[in-house]
Known about the structure:
The protein has a single domain (2-376), classed as Sodium/glucose cotransporter. The chain starts with a helix and ends with a helix. The chain is globular. Mean pLDDT is 81; it is low at 13-23. By secondary structure, it is mainly α. Helix content is 79%, strand content 0%. It is found in: Membrane. One of its GO terms (cellular component) is plasma membrane. InterPro entries: Na/Glc_symporter_sf, Na/solute_symporter, Sodium:Solute_Symporter.
Amino acid sequence: xxxxxxxxxxxxxxxxxxxxxxxxxxxxxxxxxxxxxxxxxxxxxxxxxxxxxxxxxxxxxxxxxxxxxxxxxxxxxxxxxxxxxxxxxxxxxxxxxxxxxxxxxxxxxxxxxxxxxxxxxxxxxxxxxxxxxxxxxxxxxxxxxxxxxxxxxxxxxxxxxxxxxxxxxxxxxxxxxxxxxxxxxxxxxxxxxxxxxxxxxxxxxxxxxxxxxxxxxxxxxxxxxxxxxxxxxxxxxxxxxxxxxxxxxxxxxxxxxxxxxxxxxxxxxxxxxxxxxxxxxxxxxxxxxxxxxxxxxxxxxxxxxxxxxxxxxxxxxxxxxxxxxxxxxxxxxxxxxxxxxxxxxxxxxxxxxxxxxxxxxxxxxxxxxxxxxxxxxxxxxxxxxxxxxxxxxxxxxxxxxxxxxxxxxxxxxxxxxxxxxxxxxxxxxxxxxxxxxxxxxxxxx
Length: 445
């Protein structure tokens, strides 16, 4: 019933969709709709299944995804949403091309595409963890079922339907996780301190339980990833005005972090109770062992919708990049662009399904952090400078900033050095940007 409700909602909203509706919701999104798109794409498998999985294994360290995502939305709203919307463009790549030329834009596009693809894989891992305890079939069949669900979700209407579905999805998810919190608290006799008594303070009750470097890297990857990912910026471009874009991002920043805390509580509760299960199945286990069958089915379906919706949003962002920035420039797009967008989504979804089937034992949040870091390392500094100080960074140095950021992040693990790949990549990108700014100041001086 829950899945059918969201399917009918998307179908009704997506009637008569055209290409701009499909990619940008007709540039008519309200504050609620902008927030719905942002949260719909951010809050998925990593924020639910992945957060409970990591909390069961390591505790409060699992908060970095939703905390960092909230901070990223805050920065987006305060500094970047309004100027990006005022540009009237469709993609981050178009913005960078306008500021620095096509070379920098292409590097940024591929950084975004590679990073986003990894995040889609993470959603498949989360979806498989949810389906595994329900559907008694092999991993490849599960991936096929999940692929078809994502395709049905997004083909109903693209961003036009995605914004409305995202709003309902977040309301539903808040209700589900809060209900899980109340049920677990009641079973503890309303004594939440029992959880703290049964678990060691480290790693379970420290944001840096996995190490300071790993924690900061995780949080930083979310902040820069939010600012450099097509689907999140697509939410800004879809808004009805710059002010609407700003307020929508700020609302998302307020709503995201508490969701993570609710998920962390579930993981900690299960671990403190002595339950011995595969961490990836922790959320499914809680739902099916603490609720009557009918209610458990509805809750399970609601969680599955969040994962499907996030995968759909990320795939839509990738398709928009590939079509608008690589295959058909925006100025030459016509009726064929809509079908090409859908074809690219097919390629993305089935490619991610195949890779996820081979890496099913992975920690979901680790894939998500890697994804966000790759997106940010090749885009962050040129984008920020282009928005806040347009004209100051020469195109040649913007290209080097993007190229060094992406390549350093990709190949840093081969060096064996202790610095996290994201920090190495951002450092290389920042250095190139600083040299460019310095050279430009000398030239003008």
